[in-house]
């Protein structure tokens, strides 16, 4: 949706805008894959295994908290990046701001 709105606008957007959208897509994909991987790893049935040292549970607890914190930080980053991109598109397309830094001016062609 973001790329279709960007390409259908009357204003020509700089490559910088599309590179930023690409960064959002890469970060979002990385977040999704790492979240699923962490979910699968943390749901291994360790308690059913024999000869597991009891201090492992402390390590697993802190590792899961650290991973959850990192994932929450990345989610907040993705949301802020999407907000920034969408607000730029609204300023350029919706409000018709031709002086925006992401708009290609006629003398730049």
Number of strands: 0
Assess the beta-strand content as a share of residues.
under 5%
| Structure class | mainly alpha
* Unreliable residue stretches: none
Radius of gyration: 22 Å
3D shape: rod-shaped
Q: What number of domains?
A: 1
Biggest sheet statistics = none
The separation of the N and C termini measures: 26 Å
Quick description:
4% of the residues are buried.
Could you explain the architecture of this structure?
The protein has 109 residues and is mainly α. It has three helices and no strands. It has helices at residues 2-7, 15-42, 55-94. It is rod-shaped and about 70 Å long. The protein starts with a helix and ends in a 15-residue tail after the last helix. The mean pLDDT is 83.
Annotate the secondary structure layout:
Blueprint: H1 2-7, H2 15-42, H3 55-94
Q: Which characteristics define this entry?
A:
single chain, 0% strand, 109 residues
